[in-house]
Amino acid sequence: MTRTVYLNGDYLPETEAKVSVFDRGFLMADGVYEVTSVLGGKLIDFGGHCARLARSLSELEMQNPHSDAEWLAIHRELVARNEITDGMVYLQVTRGNPGDRDFAFPGPDVAPTVVLFTQSKPGMAESPQAAIGLKVISIPDIRWGRRDIKTVQLLYPSMGKMMAKKAGVDDAWFVEDGAVTEGTSNNAYIVKGNRIITRQLSSDILHGITRAAVLRFAAEAQMVVEERPFTIDEAQAADEAFITSASAFVMPVVQVDGGDVGNGKPGPVATRLREIYLDEMRKAAL
Ligand code: PDD
Questions:
Q1: What is the DSSP secondary structure assignment for residue 3, as one 8-state letter?
Q2: Which end of the chain lies in a sparser environment, N or C, as judged by fewer CB atoms within 10 Å?
Q3: What confidence score (pLDDT) does residue 1 get?
Q4: What residues make up the domain containing 277?
Q5: Do 110 and 243 belong to one domain?
Q6: Which ligand 1 atom sits nearest the alpha carbon of residue 150?
Q7: Domain shared by 250 and 114, yes or no
Q8: Whose CA is nearest to atom 5 of ligand 1?
Q9: What single-letter DSSP state applies at residue 14?
């Protein structure tokens, strides 16, 4: 089946969707994105992703081209046309095509470019990785200072994934001033005693939509949440570690820089939070 993608109001076969070479997303990484998971044909935490999209656009002084209801209709149409049961919808809005290359932003007459496409991942919630856990290395965080905006500037996170791959592990955690900021494409947590520790929200990290939901469920389950920076030494001495993201949900981390976390196996807190997250989010899916 040829994938149908969305481009500026049209549903097209992927081979027919064309974006200009002058698009500022292509030339300047001048664009923002969202990734929303689909489970059982329904969108997970759609409201959260819509709210963050609006914020990313507004921080970059870009107009939001659609209302939340319109975004929902486009997402649903793409999921239906591509017969997605489990997978993701990727959405990107760039500052559009001013017809030439220029550092200055174009005026309001230049329309944004809006692209959405789906990725099918049958059984993604039953990933065998959740029973094994991830191994991570730490690398310096040399990204720009507005990591709270979900921009398409993903070169360094991509390099981080490659560093992890070369080191024979699954992912990398960024470290700045001695403390973990987040993972290459996820938020990072450790568990010590009865406390779940994760960095507080600021422009140092992306404000994860999965993070917000998981911390809410943790509090509801009477777990203690401490929002503060933590070090790699603390992670290695922790009982458990895990990451969260829209595509991985809650995923245990069992090794950090070669040192086992706890007994080197996925721990009960991460496992329980994954169950709660998937149960609750499936119930609330749109
Ligand atoms: N990544 N931190 C970073 C740097 C991210 O790129 C992501 C998401 C997260 C988690 O945010 P959320 O829970 O809203 O997915 C944290 C997405 C999934 C991606 O780039 O594919």
A1: P
A2: N
A3: 84
A4: 129-284
A5: no
A6: 6
A7: no
A8: 185
A9: G
